[in-house]
Design a protein that fits this description.
This protein has about 425 residues and is an alpha+beta fold. The protein folds into two domains: about 130 residues, no CATH class; about 230 residues, Alpha-Beta Complex (paralog of FGE (formylglycine-generating enzyme)), CATH 3.90.1580. About 40% of the residues lie in helices and about 15% in strands. It has ten helices and twelve strands. A four-stranded antiparallel sheet has the order 3-6-12-7. Helix 1 packs antiparallel against helix 2, helix 7 packs antiparallel against helix 8 and helix 7 crosses helix 9. The longest helix is centred in the N-terminal third of the chain and has 44 residues. The radius of gyration is 26 Å and the shape is globular. The N and C termini lie far apart (about 65 Å). The relative contact order is 0.10.
Length: about 425
């Protein structure tokens, strides 16, 4: 190798080293920037400015990249602490859980978690066989001085488990889970939505900016559930396939819509039915939901253009709670789907982006592409509390939240 070649190789090596060093400096700089912001927010937390720091923390969490999992976890913990001080139990539990998933030891300088009532009773993660599970933290009972009660209890539990297993075996010794999934699927009534075009968006000019522009969409044919998923259907699923996250609402009646379920739990539900039955069920896209509600005649509401009235539609706190699915006679869509205007708003498959309509494809749009930080999912339809129940109205929610006004409707692709 001549002198010129050696000099060229040295120059290239120096450039590569500088590039690697610069990249590392940029990453460290980004991390340091968020750490400084975290320190300032902790100081404001100590000053009891809880309400003002919540939106700031949520905005920063939307910016932090996946590579900064530790700092993300610390921001989640601080957000949970702020929510707890604001008496928002749902927000506190949710963010403590997210922070705990990202941190081995969820400890944050300046906050004494030993005094946080909600944090002490929330769910903490651990890894078992490579899978994240959760166990509830609580006060442990003291051990009995004598083991007799423990032995007796173990015997009673063993006999109870044996009897329950024997009862389940009598039902179906091999296919109990599959039979339950088939039973849930068969209890759903489906409405056919034909293939074709429709105009999607706010054609009346009375909606929000995220409902524009009005654009033409073509959808292949599909089926949508005539009614929202009920407490009875969801309860059967949870009985067969319990998991470790939130607990759904068990109130009102079996024929009321299930509420207080998280988006990812609904995905688990759909995947389970698909695996057990071979039926391709899933959450609807925004376009599928809106076409099923409005049809092709550009109506304002699912039932037409007339203003709704209490007694026909469950909305605007007319009764203040959910009603049995299909019981609101006036709330029937262009294709005959029930409760798309009121009762409960419904989770949608799409990620929410306010300006998505400006870039939406013509054929079978399915929403923005999944990316890290895409934490908001679309909600569609009004609910028993809301006053705006137009069919083109869009809303969004943090996908790990659950509310008493959010429910489920499914589509079937054949």
């Amino acid at each position: 190798m001549n002198v010129r070649s050696k000099n060229l190789m040295k120059t290239i090596a120096i450039i590569l080293v500088l590039l690697v060093f610069q990249s590392g400096m940029e990453l460290n700089s980004a991390g340091s920037s968020y750490e400084r912001k975290l320190i300032l927010l902790i100081e404001r937390y100590k000053q009891k400015i809880y309400r003002e720091i919540v939106p700031e923390i949520e905005r920063i969490l939307g910016e932090i990249g996946e590579e900064n999992s530790k700092i993300r976890g610390e921001f989640f913990i601080l957000l949970g602490a702020a929510y707890e001080k604001l008496k928002n139990k749902d927000g506190a539990v949710e963010n403590y859980l997210l922070g705990d998933m990202l941190l081995d030891q969820p400890v944050l300088e300046g906050i004494d978690f030993s005094r946080m009532e909600i944090y002490q009773s929330t769910f903490h993660g651990k890894i078992i066989n490579g899978r994240r599970v959760f166990e509830k933290v609580g006060k442990r009972k003291r051990k009995k001085k004598f083991p007799y009660f423990a032995i007796l209890g173990a015997v009673v539990i063993a006999v109870t488990v044996f009897l329950l297993m024997k009862k389940k075996t009598k039902k179906d010794p091999e296919n109990f889970e599959k039979d339950e999934a088939i039973g849930i699927f068969n209890s759903m009534e489906w409405v056919e939505i034909p293939a074709g075009e429709f105009l999607m968006g706010d054609n009346c000019g009375t909606g929000e900016a995220d409902e524009s522009p009005v654009h033409k969409v073509y959808l292949d044919s599909y089926k949508i559930s005539k009614y929202e998923v009920t407490l009875e259907q969801w309860g059967r699923f949870r009985h067969v396939k319990p998991h470790e996250w939130s607990d759904y609402f068990k109130g009102e009646g079996n024929n009321h819509p299930v509420t207080q379920v998280r988006h990812f739990e609904v995905v688990i539900f759909c995947n389970w039915i698909r695996e057990m039955t071979g039926k391709n069920v899933m959450l609807p896209t925004e376009a599928q939901w809106e076409k099923a509600a409005r049809g092709t005649d550009q109506r304002i509401y699912p039932w037409g253009n007339n203003q709704p009235e209490c007694g026909q539609i469950n909305y605007n706190n007319c009764i203040g709670i959910t009603s049995p699915v299909g019981s609101n006679s006036g709330d029937i869509s262009y294709y005959g789907v029930m409760d798309m205007g009121g009762n409960v708003t419904e989770w949608i498959r799409d990620i929410y982006e306010a300006d998505y309509y400006s870039v939406s494809p013509y054929m079978n749009p399915s929403g923005p592409e999944e990316s890290y930080g895409s934490i908001y999912k679309v909600l569609r339809g009004g609910d028993f509390q809301s006053g705006d129940i137009r069919a083109s109205d869009r809303a969004s929610q943090y996908q790990s939240r659950y509310r008493d006004y959010i429910g489920i409707r499914l589509v079937l692709i054949e």
